[in-house]
Design a protein that fits this description.
Blueprint: H1 3-9, E1 12-14, H2 23-31, E2 35-38, H3 46-60, E3 65-68, E4 70-72, E5 75-76, H4 91-96, H5 99-115, E6 120-121, H6 146-162, E7 168-172, E8 188-189, H7 193-209, E9 214-217, E10 221-222, H8 235-244, E11 251-253, H9 259-262, H10 267-277, E12 281-284, H11 288-303, H12 309-323, H13 332-335, H14 342-351, H15 362-365
Parallel strand pairs: 1-2, 1-12, 2-3, 3-6, 7-9, 8-10, 9-11, 11-12
Antiparallel strand pairs: 4-5
Helix pairs in contact: 1-11, 5-6, 6-7, 10-11
Length: 366
């Protein structure tokens, strides 16, 4: 395997099917994939997740970032039936407006994820829920008030990271006002830049100032920034994150196989445009064949100088900062003691009742 192949693979986080590593996953890890994202399809129990994490980290023989979507409410891969503390949606925190409580909830999430070897949580959602008809955000957002989202999002991210788990602010520049679901189609928003500065951007700026480890892009077209490309592929959109919000860390693209992108662009075009726009890392959440195609397209683009080698080096350096959160293999025998403790259950109860609902993200990512 060439150094360039490994450098390109180091921008990818990949997924697989089932509760144990597959030959396809092992091949991608051998090529140098930076991490693995877990879904409900990979989860049987807390002990099994810890054993899976330990196996993957030992076999990789290098820092390997294990990640998950564990927000609370509808979007949580690790549930009470698996042995984890289950939380209501983040709107429950927003309704209370208590930063100390939000930090405690973040720390709870971090302790339970760290116990089973997970290093990065794709949370918190810091979209502002300004559209009651939004089919995918809704109560995943803290509030319809940008100031509340900013305060509580920064507190929750701080709690997560205090427990040794990297946080990820999503979905930049903001998915809260869409009326389409980017798992299924490509949303467009006509908002001017001043509206973005007043509503959508303040939570991201607050989390950047609080030291959030990563930011995830939205597959949404913001017409004032780019009339044709979604934010994931748009240099003007990502310049807003770098220059106005001040973020110099790793920018992660949401799953490239979501229909907002996949129905409009081949994956080979997506990875090249996204890296040149400013994306540093990618999620590929389904088939190994697409994962290899994306990796090979990135390598070819660098070889042909469609992507400057300096740009790849910057992306790798930022991903290395995220990989610094990668912990050692967990001990599965110790995992259960850190989960569903009386203190954790009491904290969850303070937030209110759980509401059973279908996870909207499983349509496109799980």
């Amino acid at each position: 395997m060439s150094t360039l192949d490994a450098d390109c693979a180091g921008l990818f986080t990949v997924a697989f099917d089932g509760p144990r590593p597959t030959p396809e996953l092992r091949e991608l890890l051998a090529r140098g994939a930076a991490g693995v994202i877990l879904f409900s399809r990979n989860v049987e129990s807390a002990e099994q997740v810890a054993e899976l994490s330990a196996t993957l980290k030992r076999e990789a023989g290098r820092p390997l970032l294990l990640s998950v979507d564990q927000e609370g409410g509808r979007v949580a891969r690790l549930r009470a039936r698996h042995g984890f503390t289950e939380l209501p949606p983040m709107r429950a925190l927003g309704d209370r407006g208590d930063e100390a409580l939000a930090r405690q909830v973040g720390a709870l999430l971090g302790r339970e994820l760290r116990a089973v070897g997970i290093d990065l949580d794709y949370a918190p959602v810091v979209d502002v829920d300004t559209n009651p008809a939004n089919p995918v955000i809704g109560d995943r957002a803290f509030s319809r008030d940008p100031a509340v989202v900013a305060r509580l999002g920064a507190a929750l991210a701080g709690g997560l990271q205090s427990a040794g788990v990297a946080a990820c602010a999503k979905h930049f520049p903001g998915h809260g006002d869409t009326s389409q679901d980017s798992h299924l189609e490509l949303p467009r928003l006509p908002h001017g830049v001043e509206r973005l500065r007043a509503v959508e951007l303040p939570p991201f700026t607050a989390l950047v100032r609080a030291g959030v480890a990563s930011v995830m892009t939205a597959h949404v077209v913001f017409e004032a920034l780019d009339t044709s490309r979604p934010a994931t592929l748009s240099a003007p959109a990502l310049r807003l994150l770098r220059e106005e919000c001040g973020f110099d860390g790793p920018v992660l693209a949401d799953d490239l196989e979501m229909k907002a992108l996949a129905a409009h662009y081949p994956v080979e075009e997506i990875v090249v445009e996204a890296v040149n726009a400013g994306v540093d890392g990618f999620l590929l959440c389904h088939g190994a064949e697409v994962q290899h195609r994306a990796l090979e397209a990135l390598r070819r683009a660098v070889e042909r100088e469609w992507i400057p080698r300096e740009r790849l080096a910057r992306a790798r350096a930022r991903m290395a900062r995220l990989l610094a959160w990668a912990g050692p293999p967990p001990d599965p025998r110790l995992a259960r003691a850190a989960l569903r403790t009386p203190a954790h259950l009491a904290l969850a109860e303070r937030l209110g009742p759980l509401l059973a609902a279908r996870d909207p993200t499983e349509r496109g990512r799980g």
